[in-house]
Amino acid sequence: MLTFFFLVMLGCSACLVLFVSREPASKKNVGARLATINSKASGDSNDQIALTQKSRPQLSDRIGERFKGYHLGGNLECLIIYAGSTQSVGRVVMTSGGIAIVSGVVADWIFGVPLVALLAAAICAFIPCGSLMFQKWRRVGKFNAALADAIDLMARALRAGHSMASSIEVIAQQSPEPLASEFATCFQQQKFGIPFRDALLAMGERVPSDDLQFLITAVLVQKETGGDLTDILDRTTAVIRDRIRIQGEVSTRTAQGRLTGMILSALPIALLILINIITPGYSTVLFHDPLGQKLLMAGGILILIGGFIISKIVDIKV
Fold first, then answer.
1. What b/e sequence results for 212-249 when a residue is b if at least 16 CB atoms lie within 10 Å of its CB, and e otherwise?
2. Are 129 and 96 in contact (CB under 8 A)?
3. What is the rounded distance in angstroms from the CA atom of residue 100 to the CA atom of residue 122?
4. In the structure, what pLDDT confidence band is assigned to residue 61 with cuts at 50, 70 and 90?
5. Rounded to 5 degrees, what angle do the CA atoms 317, 179, 214 make?
6. Beta-carbon count within 10 A of 155 CB
7. Confidence class for position 134, pLDDT limits 50, 70, 90
8. What is the DSSP code (8-state) at residue 315?
9. Would you say the C-alpha torsion 260, 264, 269, 271 has a positive or negative sign?
10. How far apart, in whole angstroms, are the C-alpha atoms of residue 56 and residue 50?
11. Taking the CB of residue 144, how many other CB atoms lie within 10 A of it?
């Protein structure tokens, strides 16, 4: 039960830190009084008090602000933006911590081995981030699939006499998601006075797409050096479509390697589970004997190393 005690103490420590670092009650009272005075002066007290209550930071917001000061928090915030999620950094961290504690306690109750409980907690804590990474991969894939047609639409709009801003608005109106929302944001930004260059670069930061970077680079270079923008867009579209075609061919040729890596990584774990289902208690010695625990750890590390090497072999950049 050492792992259970450790996880409980970890949760209590986190709660104690949040309790100590909370906003003082005197400061809250002063803020509430100032809000009441301002609301009376404006003649709309109910709306002002409701607005003040809604603007108070929640627990997840305070956790997110503390994590943003670290490198991990910044990366997590970028991942949330790339995935197009409405979650906050604090909510993701709280969800990961809760899943880790629950899974660790359950694994310790089932197996009674601290190493297995800690491993289960570490793996399950990655579930929210893994979900965000999958959403990012799917979102960028949809964006890239519709980008070539959107560039063709932009070129046709420019040939018809539209301005660059107007052609971006056309893309926002007639393209599928998530491309439509991103170009709509870009159009609204430059409509409200943000320079066109900054709006394009901001869209490139929100969407981690190499194809979009090709488009942004081509447009900005044309703005600085001049030339026929429609011809540049046609060439950019051809490059993007050729790149997508080559990526498809590479993915087809490396499918066997990826499948081999997944099978070799999952086969030992599947066999261990299957053997214990057929013969309960067959591998108990591995979990309770010190030598067996060392062998399990070595086997897990070797599986991770092998999967990493295979992934690097089949990961061909185009």
1. bebbbebbeebeeeeeebeebbeebbeebbebeeeeee
2. yes
3. 6
4. low
5. 40
6. 19
7. very high
8. -
9. positive
10. 10
11. 19
CA distances for 123 relative to 8, 38, 130, 181, angstroms: 18, 50, 10, 34
Q: How many residues does the chain have?
A: 318
pLDDT tens, 254-278?
Answer: 888 888 888 888 888 888 888 878 8
Residue 140's CB is within 10 A of a number of other CB atoms, namely: 20
In three-state secondary structure terms, 183 is helix
Structural domain boundaries in the chain: 48-125, 136-252, 254-314
Decide which of 232 and 58 is more confident.
232
Instruction: Work out the average pLDDT over 59-70.
Output: 63
Count Cβ atoms within 10 A of the Cβ of residue 199 and give its class: 0-12 exposed, 13-18 middle, 19 or more buried.
buried
Q: Are residues 79 and 129 in contact, defined by beta-carbon separation less than 8 angstroms? A: yes
Instruction: Tell me which residue has tokens 């943000």.
Output: 194
68 pLDDT tier (thresholds 50, 70, 90): low
How far apart CA 85 and CA 104 sit, in angstroms, is 27
CA-based torsion, 53, 59, 62, 64: positive or negative: negative
Angle at CA of residue 287, ends 281 and 293, nearest 5°: 150
Say if residues 165 and 229 touch (Cβ distance below 8 Å). no
State the residue for tokens 């579930």. Answer: 127
Instruction: Tell which residue, 120, 99, 96, has the closest CA to residue 108.
Output: 120
Sign of CA dihedral 250, 253, 257, 263: positive
Tokens of 28: 């809250």
Helices 59-67 and 71-83, packing angle to 10 deg: 120
**pLDDT, average across residues 292-307:** 86
298 token code pair? 């070595």
The pLDDT tens digits of the residues spanning 135-149 come to: 999 999 899 888 989
Tokens 């007639």 sit on residue? 174
Please answer whether residues 186 and 200 qualify as being in contact, where contact means their C-beta atoms are separated by less than 8 angstroms. yes
Between residues 18 and 146, the one the model is more confident about: 146
Q: Does domain 136-252 have CATH number 1.10.760.10?
A: no
